[in-house]
Amino acid sequence: MRLRNIPCADEAIRNSAFCIGEPQEHQGHWQDLFPASQPLHIEIGMGKGRFLMDSAVLNPGISYIGIERYSSVLYRAIQKMEQLSVPNLRFLCMDASDIDSVFATGEVERIYLNFSDPWPKDRHAGRRLTSRQFLARYDRILAGNGCIEFKTDNQNLFMFSMEELNECGWKIRAFTRDLHHDPAMNEGNIMTEYEEKFSSMGNPICKLIAER
Ligand code: SAM
After folding, report:
1. Is 80 inside a domain boundary?
2. pTM above the 0.85 mark?
3. Which atom in ligand 1 lies closest to the alpha carbon of residue 50?
């Protein structure tokens, strides 16, 4: 997702109470930023943040951090947050390739990857958020019982992700190629912006849950 450049976005992010600047300084201490010490879930590539805002309101016993690299996209999430009171959600404006300098070993209990950019060219495979390069980073920051939840409507990216997870020794705990018609996996599903858009076009939604 890329929005046209919004000139005030960088400044709004710097001044927002919901966005954490200098995230490396919080490595190993993310709990201190939240009202309670509780499990930490992150979404990488959160876009405008609908999934996280709905999740945080529904689950006050979980702390959430959303990561988005484009300030013009994150700016939209900040604007929405100003109308909500969600103490258990914060944002980081950064590229997730640095994620293991931001979270300590085992600090994160769950990673959500929702409708990640597909990067269809082979030479860009390492940029996919389910590539082995990213899986190695997730392996470092996830707790022992932690997991990845990945949703996409892109069949090629889903296949690639299953293969990468298998190659890297992860276990696929559950998967479906049609989430919205799979009652067990769809139970409690929280829709993302892209999920709504693609499912309304008739695209089946794939989901997997992976652990080590
Ligand atoms: N998760 C949202 C949803 O499902 O509606 C947004 C999906 S959008 C297709 C993917 C988002 O991931 C974009 O906003 C993009 O900027 C962000 N993104 C992609 N690669 C990223 C990276 N390496 N680090 C941080 N954000 C990234």
Report:
1. yes
2. yes
3. 5
Q: Residues 82-126: pLDDT tens digits?
A: 998 899 999 999 999 999 999 999 999 999 999 999 999 999 999
- Is the CB of residue 77 below 6 angstroms from any atom belonging to ligand 1? no
What pLDDT was estimated at residue 6?
A: 83
Residue 189 pLDDT level (bands cut at 50, 70, 90): very high
Alpha-carbon distance of 178 to 168, in angstroms, equals 25
How many distinct structural domains can be found in the chain? 1
Active-site option among 10, 54, 117, 182 = 117
Nearest atom in ligand 1 to the alpha carbon of residue 193 is 5
Do the Cβ atoms of 105 and 45 come closer than 8 Å? no
Q: Which residue of 5, 67, 69, 100 sits with most ligand 1 atoms within 8 Å of its CB, as the best mutation to test the pocket?
A: 69
Using DSSP, state whether 157 is helix, strand or coil: helix
CATH number at residue 102: 3.40.50.150
Q: CB under 8 Å, gap of 24 or more: what pairs does 191-195 form?
A: 191/50, 191/51, 191/54, 192/47, 192/50, 192/51, 192/114, 192/115, 192/151, 193/47, 193/48, 193/50, 193/51, 194/1, 194/47, 194/114, 194/115, 194/153, 195/114, 195/115, 195/151, 195/153
Place of tokens 């990488």: 44
Q: Which domain holds residue 161?
A: 36-211
117 catalytic? Reply is yes
